[in-house]
């Protein structure tokens, strides 16, 4: 068996947080960046394709320029990211060049995922890069993004990229060892090693955010759950631990071998949290819809019977007879939210008809679905 056949993953997305890449004063930690690059290069030699989603532009830009006057949050992000992104990508270029690896910069925005055609265009761009041995380094284009249409943080972006690129795993490198069963500052707290679908650990999550990043563990776990439900393994680990990427992949390789051989042999426990992927991966279209809530133009409110069918294991479309109300103004093929009684958000879908026609058909029998099962994602 070749090394590639033994690998648990053929393609992974690695997200590196600002607090991993920067020192307390906001300057880039070149030593840690170099160690990270060495590990990514090692994974590529093992036949694993890597897509790197890297924070750090705003934090590194902050250390390079002193504003002449007090700036609001949007102006700060635009200024610091414009300066810092140059510094960040140049450093990556120099470090990866030592390994003979070409890199490509991908700056994107939330609006770039709003339509299926834009989504597929980005996917094609990175697919071509990978096919030609180029390592994509992705970041949000903060220089032109506006606050209302920004990603929550790069955790959200990395989840979308992992889903879009059909990665087998998303590894989120933060400044903590994973999801704890209590406050991380409490010596009695322990890292939760594995989270399975349906596990409830919401009481363990704190809403605090990192010093340089926009997100926190609440965001990370929310993204991790959604991506794992799409059939992608998600791992939250400490990017400041030495050789963590290599150790994670080797540990997952041992896990895979044990599962194949039904062995009960215990392997060394590494301090990280793994979200177990759903056994049946979602389709490409459903993955896009799953991450499209921010682009919804309206909503369908369905009755209890329809909601129960949608939440079952049956492949069910939404018919006009099950719709109680229509909200918003939308056209055919727009993204809409799906609510049950309560109201309870139960999913997202691509509508087959406009809001005007939906209002006319609402509650009627014998008509075509307003949202077909193939274009429906249930939370």
Give structural notes:
It contains twelve helices and 13 strands. It is of the alpha/beta class and 379 residues long. Strands 3-4-2-1-5-7-8-6 form an eight-stranded mixed β-sheet, sandwiched between helices. Strands 10-9-11-12-13 form a five-stranded mixed β-sheet, sandwiched between helices. Strand 3, helix 6 and strand 4 form a beta-alpha-beta unit. The N terminus is likely disordered.
Shape designation:
globular
Helix content: 25-40%
For the terminal residues, how far apart are their CA atoms? 39 Å
Q: Give the biggest sheet.
A: 8 strands, mixed
Instruction: Compute the number of helices.
Output: 12
Radius of gyration of CA atoms, rounded to a whole number: 22 Å
Counting helices, strands and paired strands, the structural category is: alpha/beta
Mean pLDDT level: 86
How many strand elements? 13
What is the beta-strand fraction? 15-25%
Strand order, largest beta sheet: 3-4-2-1-5-7-8-6
The ordered string of helix (H) and strand (E) elements is HEHHEHHEHEHEEHEHEHEHEEEHE
Unreliable spans: 1-5, 207-215
């Amino acid at each position: 068996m070749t090394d590639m056949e033994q690998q648990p993953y053929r393609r992974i997305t690695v997200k590196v947080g600002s607090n991993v890449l920067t020192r307390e004063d906001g300057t880039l930690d070149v030593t840690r960046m170099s160690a990270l690059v060495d590990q990514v290069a090692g994974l590529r030699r093992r036949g694993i394709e890597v897509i790197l989603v890297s924070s750090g532009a705003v934090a590194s830009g902050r250390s390079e320029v002193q504003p002449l006057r007090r700036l609001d949050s949007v102006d700060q992000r635009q200024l610091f990211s414009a300066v810092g992104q140059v510094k960040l990508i140049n450093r990556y270029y120099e470090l990866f060049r030592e390994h003979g690896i070409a890199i490509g910069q991908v700056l994107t925005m939330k609006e770039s995922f709003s339509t299926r055609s834009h989504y597929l265009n980005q996917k094609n761009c990175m697919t071509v890069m990978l096919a030609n041995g180029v390592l994509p380094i992705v970041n949000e284009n903060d220089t032109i993004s506006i606050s209302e249409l920004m990603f929550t943080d790069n955790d959200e972006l990395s989840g979308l990229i992992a889903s879009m690129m059909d990665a087998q795993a998303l590894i989120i490198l933060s400044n903590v060892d994973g999801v704890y069963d209590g406050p991380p500052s409490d010596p009695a707290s322990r890292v939760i090693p594995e989270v399975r679908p349906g596990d409830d650990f919401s009481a363990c999550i704190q809403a605090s955010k990192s010093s340089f990043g926009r997100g926190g563990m609440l965001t990370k776990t929310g993204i991790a759950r959604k991506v794992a439900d799409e059939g992608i393994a998600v791992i939250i680990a400490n990017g400041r631990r030495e050789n963590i990427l290599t150790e994670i992949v080797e540990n997952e390789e041992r896990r895979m071998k044990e599962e194949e051989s039904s062995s009960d042999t215990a392997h060394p426990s590494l301090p990280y949290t793994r979200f177990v992927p759903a056994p049946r991966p979602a389709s490409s279209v459903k993955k896009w819809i799953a991450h499209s809530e921010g682009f919804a133009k309206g909503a369908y409110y369905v009755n209890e019977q329809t909601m129960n069918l949608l939440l079952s294991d049956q492949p069910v479309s939404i018919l006009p007879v099950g719709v109680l109300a229509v909200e918003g103004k939308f056209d055919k093929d727009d993204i809409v939210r799906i609510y049950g009684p309560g109201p309870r958000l139960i999913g997202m879908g691509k509508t087959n008809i406009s809001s005007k026609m939906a209002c006319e058909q609402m509650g009627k029998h014998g008509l075509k679905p307003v949202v077909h099962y193939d274009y429906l994602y249930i939370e």
